[in-house]
Specification:
This protein is mainly α. Helices cover 81% and strands 0% of the residues. The longest helix is centred in the C-terminal third of the chain and has 64 residues, at 118-181.
Length: 182
C-alpha cells in the first residue's frame, strides 16, 4: 500500500470518527438542555423560596454559608435544591429529633404500647414530620442529581465537539498530504 492510499484511509477514518463525535455532541447537548429545563420547570413549579435573614439565623455557620448564596431566590436548579435539602431541611429535622433518624424515631414509636399516651403522640408527630422531611429531601436531592447529570452531559458535549473539530482538521490535513504524496 502506498503512502497516498494510507493517508486517505486514515483520513476517512478520522472523518467517520469526527461524524460520530459530532452526533454524540448533539445528543449530549440535547440531553443537557432537556434535563436542565425539566429540573428548572419542576422546581420552579413548587414555588420554594430559599430562606433568607431570620429564616437562617438560627442555623449553624456551615448551614448559613451554604444557603447564603441563594438567599431569597426561587429554587430553580440542582445546587439550590441540594443546599436547601442538606442545610435547611436536614438541619431542622436534626434539631427537632436531636439527631435521630426517621427509622430510630419510628422504632421508638412502635415500641410504645399505648399509642394514645402523650409520649406516643409526640413520637407519632415527630415520626410523621421526619417522614415528610425525608421525602422532600429525597425529591430535592434527585433534582440535584439530575442537575449534575445535565452539567456533565453539557461538558461532555463540548468535549465531543472539540474532538470532532480536531479530527475533522486532522482528516483535512491527511487528505492534503495524500495529494502531495501521490
Amino acid at each position: 500500500m502506498n503512502r497516498s492510499t494510507l493517508d486517505k484511509l486514515i483520513s476517512y477514518m478520522g472523518l467517520a470518527l469526527a461524524a460520530i463525535l459530532l452526533i454524540g455532541g448533539i445528543l449530549l447537548s440535547t440531553a443537557s438542555t432537556f434535563i436542565k429545563g425539566e429540573v428548572q420547570n419542576q422546581l420552579a413549579s413548587q414555588k420554594i423560596v430559599m430562606p433568607a435573614g431570620p429564616g437562617i439565623e438560627r442555623l449553624s455557620e456551615e448551614d448559613k454559608a451554604a444557603l447564603q448564596p441563594f438567599a431569597g431566590q426561587t429554587m430553580t436548579n440542582g445546587a439550590q435544591a441540594k443546599a436547601f435539602a442538606d442545610h435547611y431541611i436536614a438541619a431542622h429535622m436534626n434539631s427537632m429529633a436531636q439527631g435521630k433518624t426517621y427509622e430510630e424515631v419510628s422504632g421508638e414509636y412502635m415500641k410504645v404500647a399505648d399509642k394514645t399516651s402523650p409520649e406516643a403522640q409526640k413520637l407519632g408527630e415527630m415520626r410523621q414530620t421526619l417522614f415528610m422531611g425525608n421525602t422532600l429531601r429525597g425529591m430535592l436531592l434527585n433534582a440535584y442529581a439530575f442537575g449534575t447529570m445535565s452539567n456533565i452531559a453539557g461538558t461532555a458535549a463540548i468535549v465531543a465537539y472539540v474532538g470532532a473539530a480536531l479530527l475533522a482538521l486532522l482528516a483535512f490535513l491527511g487528505f492534503r498530504h495524500s495529494r502531495q504524496s501521490a
